[in-house]
Specification:
single chain; about 100 residues; mainly alpha; 4 helices; about 85% helix
């Protein structure tokens, strides 16, 4: 693998993980506030707080996998746009073409 390929792959993965964590964080926060009353019913039913916390963590562990399935394509596109914007902003396409590498 060439150095340029590694640089582009690392640049893409950086944007991918940022986009993934932001999107999952937004989905999780919105869903948590929408279902907060249902989770509080576990405390009203006489269960302890750690037990309710385990139920919430298990619920969101499953749902995060489902959300990833739904938004994997969008995260990929956002990561590609971030990567291309970063490369274009630093004029790295110009340097690559000047060294004889085609686009």
């Amino acid at each position: 693998m060439k150095i340029l390929d590694r640089y582009i792959a690392i640049n893409f993965l950086y944007g991918y993980f940022i986009a993934l964590f932001v999107m999952v964080g937004m989905f999780l926060t919105i869903d948590l506030f929408l279902h907060l009353d249902e989770f509080s019913e576990y405390l009203d039913a006489g269960r302890s707080f750690p037990e309710m916390l385990r139920i919430v963590v298990r619920y969101y562990a499953v749902h995060c996998c489902l959300w990833f399935k739904d938004m994997a394509g969008m995260v990929m596109v956002i990561a590609a746009v971030f990567s291309l914007a970063r490369i274009t902003r630093n004029n790295e396409f110009t340097a690559g073409m000047g060294s004889g590498i085609s686009l």
